[in-house]
Write a structure and sequence with these properties.
231 residues; alpha/beta; 7 helices; 28% strand
Length: 231
């Protein structure tokens, strides 16, 4: 489903004309099969979020190839990349990134509105997703009326609503207590099994990383696969 080959990237630091090039991704290669949960663990600044942005198409690496669903994405235009991303990927964020002036239901349906899906069809799709993630009783609440775990469920539902084959999660439990973290991880595993969705999870938490089918360690821009201590 996802093939990354020899991807390298550097950031420029300093004033123009006196810039220093800092390698952030170093010759990274790996494959991801459909329906896998992949975790990438590493310290802040190790390059894991940069790699996630490259897979999502938000960043164009200087070297290498990224093929997703049979399509080479590095050479797509911005508009082509945005269209491909909206059709194939959902996103879960650490800080939820919900619209405060919209209810949970309205936040979840937003990607469908952007895609031009009609009102009646949107309602049916969102109702189904709301039940699946356990938000039936609070879908009319605003984000500030929800707990952290409920807000993350809204974020997960929003990621799911367009039925993408791939979900990219950046520190999805970073702002949650340990009990809520386990609930969210259990939900991710359930969605993975019931919907055959491929998850790529970026985390600094070893416990979160060890729940994946495959675990990778990112250190100073170098990625290597390690054996999870628990599955």
């Amino acid at each position: 489903m996802i093939n990354v080959q020899n991807v390298s990237h550097t950031f420029k630091i300093g004033k123009k004309g006196n810039e220093k090039r800092v390698p952030v991704l170093k010759n990274i290669s790996f494959d991801i099969d459909k329906g896998n949960i992949i975790s990438i663990v590493g310290k802040s600044g190790s390059g894991k979020s940069t790699l996630l942005n490259a897979i999502a198409g938000f960043l164009k690496p200087e070297q290498g190839s990224i093929v997703i669903q049979g399509k080479e994405t590095i050479h797509l235009s911005e508009s082509e990349c945005a269209k491909f991303r909206s059709e194939n990927m959902g996103f879960i964020f650490q800080n939820f990134q919900l619209m405060p002036g919209l209810t949970a239901f309205e936040n979840i349906e937003l990607p469908l509105k952007i895609q031009g899906v009609g009102k009646n069809e949107r309602f049916q799709i969102v109702q189904k997703i709301v039940r699946k993630v356990g938000l039936d009783t609070v879908s009319d609440h605003y984000p500030n009326e929800l707990s952290g775990g409920q807000q993350q469920r809204v974020c997960i539902a929003r990621a799911l609503v367009t039925n993408p084959p791939i979900i990219l999660a950046d520190e999805p439990t970073g702002n949650l207590d340990s009990e809520t973290e386990q609930e969210i991880l259990q939900l991710i595993r359930l969605l993975n099994e019931s919907m055959d969705i491929t998850f790529i999870i970026i985390t600094h938490d070893e416990e979160v990383a060890n729940t994946a089918h495959r675990k990778f360690l990112m250190h100073d821009g170098v990625l290597k696969e390690v054996v999870p201590s628990a599955v």
